[in-house]
Amino acid sequence: MDVKKLEESFPGTVHKVPGGGILTSKLDDVINWARSNSLWPLVFGTSCCAIEMMSTAGPKYDFSRFGFEVARASARQADVIIIAGTIVNKMAPVLKRLYDQMADPKYVIAMGACATSGGPFFYNTYSVVKGADHVIPVDVYIAGCPPRPEALLHALMTLQQKIKSGLTREQIKSEMKTV
Fold first, then answer.
1. What local confidence, expressed as pLDDT, does residue 2 receive?
2. How far is residue 105's CA from residue 82's CA, in Å, rounded to a whole number?
3. Model's pTM, two decimal places?
4. Domain ranges in the chain?
């Protein structure tokens, strides 16, 4: 990474001295910057949206460029859960358990029509949950059926910006309602 770009994105000021530099910043800003650039996703793919989520990790879109490289299969090591697909009543307790096992701070992205509102399956069957927010709190919603990989990247970068700004989960939720 270019040193100039790093200096621009890093929260604080770099004072040049012979042989290097001295950085001054607030600790909270540095923690939020580090937290936002090292989000480890837990993938919860149940339908066709999961295919689009998988392609986001592939070489064409490569979400590791943005700090989401370490996809985890364990909820205890993840920071953000990406729900991609339909949630049925039998799967809702499993999703809640995975969410409860995640360490704080934890974030949730609902990807696609099925994860956000039950999708086209909600009206034809009794077993589909009408959105992930009926089971766990959601921070970022992605529209589409299925949404493009670019939409997932945009949602992840939006979540990064909210974390960098130092917003708490409650502030993120209230900001999403006003938009």
1. 57
2. 15
3. 0.79
4. 41-178
